[in-house]
Amino acid sequence: MSYRKVNCEDVEQVSDAKHFLSEPLGCRQVGVTFSRCPPEWNSEPHDHVDDEHEEVYVLVSGTAEVRVDQESVPVEEGDAVWIAPEATRQIRNGEGVSAFVLISAPKFDSSESSDDAWNLTGFHG
Fold first, then answer.
1. pLDDT confidence bin for 110, thresholds 50/70/90
2. In this protein, which residues make up the domain named Cupin type-2 (predicted)?
């Protein structure tokens, strides 16, 4: 099969906000998490130094703040924030509910792959 589909509501919730989707989707090289953040919720500050994963946080609804190191990055619906592996990051939710899609991937080493790896050619469709 060339695709897999899963609804985050069908995946067991981890902590009080997150649904890890990578395993149910059968992902091999990318981490995908859906996070529905209740009012006043804060994630644990963390980094990805050990696994060298970069992350992108995409806010799909609501408003929130992403703390990157000691900097506050206000985000609103549609905003995406790239975060380096060594940066400490934390989601801080305000008074309303917000929802994020969190995407992570390991360090990409172009010397270990073909010349056309990660060659983006545009959107077809």
1. low
2. 38-96
**Any idea what the Cα angle at residue 80 is, between residues 71 and 94, rounded to 5°?**
60
Kindly give, in sequence order, each residue whose CB lies less than 8 Å from that of residue 123, ignoring residues fewer than 6 positions away: none
- Architecture of the domain made up of 30-92: Sandwich (2.60)
> What mean pLDDT comes out for the span 69-86?
96
DSSP 23: H
Enumerate the domain spans of the chain.
30-92
Buried b (16+ CB within 10 A) or exposed e, 64-95: bebbbeeeeeebeeebeeebebebebebbbee
State pTM to two decimals.
0.82
Return the bridge partners of 52, or none.
Answer: none
- The answer to whether 80 and 119 have CB atoms below 8 angstroms apart is no
